[in-house]
Amino acid sequence: MKAHLEQFLADALAVLKANDVVPADVNPPITISRTRDAAHGDYASNLAMILAKPAGRAPRDIAQAILDAAPLPSDISKAELAGPGFINFFAADAVQASVVGKVLSAKEKYGLSDAGMGQRWQVEFVSANPTGPLHVGHGRGAALGATISNLLTAVGVEVEREYYVNDAGRQMDILATSVWLRYLEAHGQKLDFPSNGYQGDYIADIATKLGAEQDDALVRPAADVFKDVPADEPAGGDKELHIDGLIVNTKSLLGGDNYRTVFDEAVNSVLDGIKHDLAEFKVIYDSWFSEASIANDVARCIDKLDEAGHIYEQEGAKVFRSSAFGDEKDRVVVRSNGLTTYFASDIAYINNKIERGYDKVLYLFGADHHGYTDRMYAACEALGHPREKLEFLLIQFANLFRDGERVQMSTRSGSFVTIRELFEEIGVDAARYFYVMRRYQQHLDFDLDLAKSQSKNNPVYYVQYAHARICSMQRELGHKNLEFDSEAGLASLALLDTAEEAELLTLLNKYPEVVEKAAFEHEPHQLTGYLRDLANGLHIYYGAHKVLVDDAALRNARFCLLLAVKQVLVNGLSLINVSTPEVM
Questions:
Q1: SS3 of residue 444 by DSSP
Q2: In what order do the strands lie in the sheet with 398-402?
Q3: N or C, which end of the chain has less CB nearby within 10 Å?
Q4: pLDDT, tens digit, 9 for 90 and up, residues 6-33
Q5: Are strands 33-34 and 43-45 parallel, antiparallel or unpaired?
Q6: Alpha carbon distance 485, 560 (integer Å)
Q7: How far is CA 132 from the centre of its chain?
Q8: Kind and range of the H or E element at 476?
């Protein structure tokens, strides 16, 4: 129907140009939008308002000229002028009702499209350093990334979901050192644990596992571990210099092979936990990409930038001229001590992604990375790739509330709520739904008490209950020994003439557009908002009208409508990876 309206407006515009009503060189985009109020029709266009200025005529005059220029599509019953020059279009009742048959025929495929066919995207999300379990802050990026990927797939885009594993660099060395120090404590060594080490219980758990495998083979005197190490912050020193000194001594005392043993035990243990938690959270990746795997590419990319004149030396360090490509300042890629920076690895990773042939690379970053995107664009362009290949979504933080009080969290100190603890407390369904039901640019206040409640105030419960309510009516149909004939119901859809039925039909027709819009605008909250409206329409309908009536034709028609609503609820919730229980 939307395509028919777009063609109608294009034909009308051609007539207006031929009649010199509109200049021939005026070619505005033709857009059709859904109306918010059914009283204003089903679709609306502002084309007349766009054409008014170049045509030198009032918008309403242009709007009337459009309607006079070409016959309305057969699936539109009427069109009306509104406001300063909008044109509102009303779908024919038979066309509106025909959606029931479309849904019941297409089943789980209803709402899918080929709008993005031929495009190949990569979506990278979460990618938290494997230095500890995922906490509730990571959960929002996980739910959003997975749902956006599902939406893009639903509109025909070929999507690869990737987790970038930061398994190289200083943070991993801090992790390994933290585990070894806990191992030494467990083997009787007395020491002051560094304030900048990782201190969660999981560190002790990994150390215990290391001890079970290595016994006391890795024990070294604590005095040697802390020899010549700068004082820690509690002792008036610098915590960064302190931990760096401990890392140097750890590597020296253990030697290459033994240090690798500790390092791998620490990283793999944390990463295995992350993979397990995400899988139970219904987040599945196509690729777990190792930062260590592109170590050789880092030097190659820096050399490429250097050859292109984008690198200069300053106080022994190599600096990328990122300011020449729109960044606020230039960025160090190789420190004066010869070690590459974290950003240098990101440069190699960008190059690697684009060389894999993606049409678009979508990053989901936390809002605290807002200053990072410009340097990423700069690196992309300096490497010779179109910056349009990259797209960033900056996700605001999720604040957890319990009993009306905000839960305080700190990853380094180990004082945080893990994503596993969250979904074990409230369930995967509630966690997934709550994470995506707000615009990602907005802060999310996650109310645990609301998420656990079984009331209409709980949005996921409210939507799932609409599905369960229809299932209950199906069971009641059998209990009352009433017959249901779907073919007869589809032939009797004209009987669906109440305002509540018209609203449900409008919503069913709207679903494919919602999926497409939510996919390309990367806004899953549009889908959850739609599902809320559909569930609300169902609940209102249930309260206003009896479905299991004696009139077989009306009963069949109404039951077909309910089954279509049920199918769309299933389709929509599946895109968020939320279940559809039959009994609640």
A1: strand
A2: 405-406, 398-402, 444-447
A3: C
A4: 999 999 999 999 999 999 999 999 988 8
A5: antiparallel
A6: 9
A7: 22
A8: helix 459-479
DSSP H/E element including 178: helix 170-186
Q: Which helix (H) or strand (E) is 91 found in, with range?
A: strand 86-91
Q: Give the integer Cα–Cα distance in Å for 311 and 298.
A: 14
- Distance (Å, whole) CA 413 – CA 452: 28
**DSSP per residue, 239-285:** HHHHHHHHHHHHHHHHHHHHHHHHHHHHHHHHHHHHHHHHHHTT---
CB atoms within 10 A of CB 456: 12
Token output for 47: 């084309």
Q: In terms of CATH architecture, what is 459-575? A: Orthogonal Bundle (1.10)
Which residues does residue 34 pair with via DSSP β-bridges, in sequence order? 43
- CA–CA distance, 380 with 290 (Å, rounded to integer): 20
Q: Are 142 and 134 in contact (CB under 8 A)?
A: yes
Under 8 Å between Cβ of 429 and 578? yes
Residue 264 is encoded by which pair of tokens?
A: 């791998």
3-state secondary structure of 19: coil
Residues in the chain: 584
Q: What is the pLDDT of residues 381-394, one digit of tens each?
A: 999 999 999 999 99
The greatest distance separating any two alpha carbons of the chain, rounded to the nearest whole angstrom, comes to 94
CA-CA distance, 279 to 548, in Å (whole number)?
Answer: 42
Give per-residue burial for 137-176: e unless 16+ CB within 10 Å, then b. Answer: bbbbbbbbbbbbbbbbbbbbbebbbbbbbbbbbeebbbbb
Supply angle C-alpha 279, 283, 285, rounded to 5: 95
The answer to whether 259 and 177 are in contact (CB under 8 A) is no
- DSSP assigned state of 510: H
CATH of domain 2-91: 3.30.1360.70
d(CA 46, CA 128): 45
- Kindly tell me if the per-residue pLDDT of 410 is higher than 80: no
| Residue indicated by tokens 């509102």 | 88
Query: Any idea where the domains of the chain sit in the sequence?
Result: 2-91, 170-280, 459-575
Helix (H, G, I), strand (E, B) or coil at 550: coil
Provide the CA 544 distance to its chain's centre, in angstroms.
37
Query: Under 8 Å CB-to-CB from 338, ≥6 apart: which residues?
Result: none
Query: Three-state SS across 97-130?
Result: HCHHHHHHHHHHHCCCCCCCCCCEEEEECCCCCC
Residues 417-422: what's their mean pLDDT? 91
The kind and range of the H/E element at 346 are helix 342-355
Phi-psi region of 44 (alpha: psi -120 to 50; beta: other; left: phi over 0): beta
Residues with Cβ within 8 Å of 505's Cβ and at least 6 positions away in sequence, in order, are 96, 97, 99, 100, 496, 561
Kindly state the tokens that stand for 367: 């809002």
pLDDT for 137-158, tens place per residue?
899 999 999 999 999 999 999 9
